[in-house]
Amino acid sequence: MDHPISALAAASLSLCCTFLADAGELSVVAVDPPVNSRVASVHAPIVIHFDRPLDPATVNFTNIRAFARWSGAVTGTLALSNADQTLTLIPSGPRTSGESVMVMLSHDLRAADGSFLRAAGYSYVYWTRACPGPVSFTTVQTINTNLIVPGESSRPYGGSAADVNHDGRLDLCIVNEDSEDLRVYLNTGNPLNPFAAALVPPPPLGADASPSDTADFNNDGLTDICVATHVDNTVVVLLGNGDGTFNVSQVVNVGSTPTGITAFDADGDADPDIVNTNFASSNLSIHINNGSGVFSPPVFFEAGATGERAITAADMDRDGIMDLVVGFRTAQTVAVLRGNGNATFANIGSQSCGGAVWQMNVADLSGDGINDVATANSFSNNAAILLGQPGGTLGPATIYSIPTDPFGLATDVGDVDGDGDLDWMTSSYSGDWRLFLNNGAGAFTFHQEFNAPIAASCTLFFDMDNDGDMDMGLIDEEADRVIIMRNNGPDVPGDADGDGDCDSLDLNIVLTDFGCTDGPGACSGDMDDDGDTDSVDLNIILSVFGSSCR
């Protein structure tokens, strides 16, 4: 019989890699959506199956947390079923299309027999599905990031497309090096002019603020941000207020020239900690969260080579513990540091990446369930893909030359064509943005170049208009511009209004437009693109009615 807090029985469970545990420990044996899935529904519940019944007294949002990179903390209802061996997080609302979701379980989660989850806790990541799109983009807005103070240079370099005011639309939070602040642009809901002017005053950050990451640091359900400033040598923690504004809650001194930052649970208590690289002092800093969004002074440790610049947390060996992937600009390598689950790490190997790493992404690019690495190699005028291997190490780099666009600054991934794999964009300071499409196995083909006003700096892949496909925010740090490009889709049968599903709204469009013969592109109910709205179009709607790409 289900426990009284349960309202839903778990349905489909997908096997994950079960970590080795003492027979007396509570263990995770399966999760759904699966580890590193790239096609989970935005509406999917998070289901975790254990090897024994849970103690309901420890089933709470302190011990069980999930955070979606753009849409934020996954809130809702926690339910037990299957004789209390299955835990389901039933979300109160959808995530957004094409984003990663990190699930974190605390070592304080207890079984009915009194045993606990291992000290390292359990963490994993999956991605939500992006709708099919034509990979044809239209510029709908160009944001000038330097308009708060006339004549200033803001120098935008990175940021996030997070829903910071909880209205279901993704906003922009842009980090600026010269103006030393975070500028927030709220989404208006108008896909043709999607972002309002920046909120003022912007929260201050420090000199040459640059790399950032999102998390819910104080477990209040709101999106927070951490930023590294590589002239002031600090990590700045900003707590969100839920209305688009942020308060600087803490400034932590770190090593020399912090150029990379990542937030994840390093010590098994389910709250996100912070690790940053220190390029000039050639080490890493870890900052432990006390659970309320207050961080410890840095503990410094070595990564195994010189010139640590880029960093990302990811579970490379599928043991349910987050590892660190570090890109070295000086050594021109990428190293994997296996997480021990107690805020310490061990280098398990490195691989040459063919150049001086500037930025890096980690995700399953090849579809084998193992995380891979994409690097942008700055002065080396190339970029690289390194496929992950069983056990957590990396295979040899495949080098992609970008000779016409030298100085690769950034590498970003997202499913721009909605085919279930992650595509790749490189950004070049002395050139443009270059989009590469994935063949599904982690091999990439150049598809299109997007011209930069001055200096292509990075890309945000996100669903700007809530239609399910991936749009883009292209950031040019020298021009002080964020160029918003709308993907002209999605390409979903029966979706007359372009919102990613086929429902009564689409049926009404076809019925209202029935009999139109105005030619290709002129009839709103023309599902087969033959220039009219007729019984064929109506049959298309009826045959897929109720379907959704999300």
Condensed summary:
With 550 residues, the chain is mainly beta. Helix content is 4%, strand content 39%. Residues 1-21 have low confidence and may be disordered.
Question: Explain this structure to me?
Answer:
The strands form nine sheets. The protein has a five-stranded antiparallel beta sheet with strand order 1-2-3-7-6, with no helix packed on it. The protein has a four-stranded antiparallel beta sheet with strand order 5-4-8-9, with no helix packed on it. A four-stranded antiparallel beta sheet has the order 10-36-35-34, with no helix packed on it. It has helices at residues 504-513, 535-544; strands at 14-15, 28-32, 46-50, 64-68, 72-73, 76-81, 86-91, 100-105, 122-127, 137-144, 156-160, 172-176, 181-185, 209-215, 224-229, 234-240, 246-253, 258-264, 273-278, 283-287, 299-301, 308-314, 323-328, 333-339, 345-352, 359-363, 372-376, 382-388, 394-401, 408-414, 423-428, 433-438, 444-450, 456-462, 471-476, 481-487. The model is unreliable at 1-21 (pLDDT under 50). Among the domains are: 28-127, Sandwich (Immunoglobulin-like), CATH 2.60.40; 501-548. It is mainly β and 550 residues long.
Class per helix and strand makeup: mainly beta
Q: How many runs of DSSP E, i.e. beta strands?
A: 36
Radius of gyration: 23 Å
Question: Number of DSSP helices?
Answer: 2
Beta content comes to 35-45%
Instruction: Report helical residue fraction.
Output: under 10%
Query: Shape from CA axes?
Result: globular
- Multimeric organization: single chain
End-to-end separation in angstroms reads 33 Å
CATH class of the domain at 28-127: Mainly Beta
